[in-house]
Amino acid sequence: QVQLVESGGGLVQAGGSLRLSCAASGLTFTNYYMGWFRQAPGKEREFVAVISKSGGDTYYADSVKGRFTFSRDNAKNTVYLQMNSLKPEDTAVYYCAADRVSVIIRTPEYWGQGTQVTVSS
User: Fold this and answer.
1) What is the dihedral of CA 10, 22, 79, 8, to 10 degrees?
2) pLDDT of 102 over the 90 cut
3) Does residue 18 contact residue 115 with C-beta atoms inside 8 Å?
């Protein structure tokens, strides 16, 4: 069974930082692009960031560019999202995702359970 298990969410004040983790199992980790998505109350799920299979390339949504950093540790089958300078509009449930193609071209094959990030003003 493929599992993506997230951790690191919580409550933080505006301007603060959080680091999300997503540990993958049941798949060959290096065969997959990994992505982060988020869904705020009353909004559709939106793309946040993607990382290549090797970790050599990343791409970010404009809303988080310069504030968030995506990384992966293939030896640990784990990806991380370092979130700095958090804003109230970053408040959302954050989802880890995996796909063999891109996570952008199509709906990702696998999803984590989601972790709540709340940024207070």
Assistant:
1) 20
2) no
3) no
